Amino acid sequence: MHSKFNSIGLVVRSDMQSRQEKIQQVVSALKRHARVVVHCLDFDQPLVGIASVPLNQLVEEVDLVISLGGDGTLLTAARALADVDTPLLGINLGRLGFLADVSFDDFESYLDAVIEGRYSVEQRFLIEGHFYEGDNLVSTNIAMNDIILHSYESSSMIEYEISSGGKLIHIQRSDGVIVTTPTGSTAYALSGGGPIMHPSLNTLAIVPICPHTLSNRPIVLPADQPIEVRLGQDSLLAKVSYDGHSTTIVNKDNRVRIIRYPKPLTLLHPEDYDYFQVLRAKLYWSANY
Questions:
Q1: For the chain, how many structural domains are there in total?
Q2: What is this structure's pTM?
Q3: Active-site annotation holds for 274
Q4: DSSP labels for 202-214?
Q5: Catalytic residue among 71, 146, 175, 243
Q6: Domain that includes residue 165, residue range
Q7: Does one domain contain both 199 and 120?
Q8: Domain containing 53 — which CATH number?
Q9: CB 250 within 8 Å of CB 241
Q10: Is residue 34 part of a domain?
């Protein structure tokens, strides 16, 4: 059977010497099926005998991208794929691996299945943060998991206000606030007491980080309704981050407008992929005591 994936991109993080052999093993397996292009996220830790190309070049040249690492590696690849139709598959070398759901021990059999066209397809939406200075748009950043406003100094709270669709939701004092997609609902937002949202939902959740009001609870909103976050007039400085990256300092003259990104990301999963099985395994819901 002829594969539609003639060129495969591999995004890796080689910051640990123990990963070198596994990376070489995956590259060798991929080369049996297609041309392989590699991007190493750690330029100070080059791969032995394998050239690393820039990530934007990799995205332009391949039919399929595979991330080899944890969910952080997959998130980096996902943001790079935001404007193309190239699908993404994650092989897990990390700990939890909610997104990178193919076990390294099983990757060769799953790879054979993918090449033969036996896989399940899922679309996940991304979000985009528009950072304003007054009425001037300064920058935009994309996130797959979450956009987080948090205290600039870890020991201090901030005051912020959140509105959705032009209507004020609340003014709050806390260590920060998480605006999360369903994909990110099992990440930082989960540890903050946020709800788990099924990936098929068109929703966003607002999850406060250590709120100073005991009655405060996370709230789930339609993803098609823009969310705006700004600091209170007397608040200390804060930072905004996108999937934990691209951190920007925020003052009372700034605001962040968060919208659903128009183009979805295509994830490939094993043929027998089951979201609830992933939750049971990663969150130990079916542990025998």
A1: 2
A2: 0.93
A3: no
A4: -EEEEEEES-S-T
A5: 71
A6: 127-260
A7: no
A8: 3.40.50.10330
A9: no
A10: yes
